[in-house]
Write a structure and sequence with these properties.
By secondary structure, this protein is α/β, with parallel strands linked by helices. The chain is 37% helix and 23% strand. The protein is built from 5 helices and 5 strands, in the order ααβαβαββαβ. The termini are far apart.
């Protein structure tokens, strides 16, 4: 027996809707964000997520009002995905994202409390250290963890 036409159309419509809206963050993102914040020891301030990809972890890093989070990535599609995720979670502004251009981070010296480097995006270590605040923390992702 073959499905009737209305069921097929309904299935296509549901599939189309699920592709149009950002999916909820995987459960691992909040756990990973909490673990990274504990590992860093910071208690608030500006977190910059370099190589933010689709913004799943970036969004999860804002665990409370003591943190401001900014994602950076060279890939414009990833920045758009991040912004969509942040808007859907109604946290855009408290968490932001922008496209990285050039070889310098678009931040003033000594501003960042936690710099998470998921992908260096071609930014060298001295440039990363330049933006860290006194007592700021640099965490870099490696094949074995952070």
């Amino acid at each position: 027996m073959t499905p009737s036409r209305p069921i097929i159309l309904l299935s296509i419509a549901v599939l189309g809707l699920s592709a149009a809206f950002p999916q909820p963050a995987p459960a691992a993102a909040p756990d990973q964000a909490t673990q990274l914040l504990e590992q860093s020891g910071i208690q608030g301030g500006l977190i910059v997520h370099l190589g933010c990809q689709d913004g799943t972890l970036t969004a999860a890093l804002r665990v409370n009002d003591r943190y401001q989070v900014h994602g950076l990535d060279r890939n414009f599609a990833m920045i758009q995905a991040t912004r969509s995720r942040l808007l859907a979670k109604d946290i855009y502004g408290k968490v932001t994202a922008s496209r990285l251009v050039g070889n310098e981070l678009p931040l003033v010296d000594g501003l960042v409390n936690l710099l998470l480097v998921e992908d260096s995006q071609g930014i060298d270590r001295p440039e990363m250290l330049r933006v860290l605040a006194p007592g700021g923390v640099l965490l870099t992702k490696t094949p074995t963890g952070w």
